[in-house]
# Entry
Amino acid sequence: MRKVESQFGEGPLQQKLSVGDLHFLSDAEVSKGGGGTGPSPHEYLGAALAACTSMTLKMYASRKAMSLENAIVTVDIERADDVEIFTREIQLIGNLNAEEKERLLEIANKCPIHKALAGQIQIKTQLIN
# Structure
């Protein structure tokens, strides 16, 4: 995996992010003190789960020659009593039978981001200057 770098951007909370040669922004909503110029960190976390889920479904369906035309994945994150609650909705589009749909739901739970978020996580932090 390429490293992700973040540094201060413009305005009160904007961050300039880079991954290799790719550059994008993160910010907080205006109502939360930001400039609204990019997705919030939580929205990126939801985007990671959504993208990983649909990529995983596309790869699996392709390998198994399933008629999956699209997988639309929506993720919402709420916080309640210090617990992050991820709600993921998956819409499967294509000529799929009930067995294939059930198998794809099982496969969705095996995407790497789902496994990372549902498993044990360690964060190692160090100052480097």
In short: The domain at 41-118 is CATH 3.30.300.20 (GMP Synthetase; Chain A, domain 3). The chain has two domains: 1-38, 41-118. The mean pLDDT is 97. The longest strand covers residues 68-80.
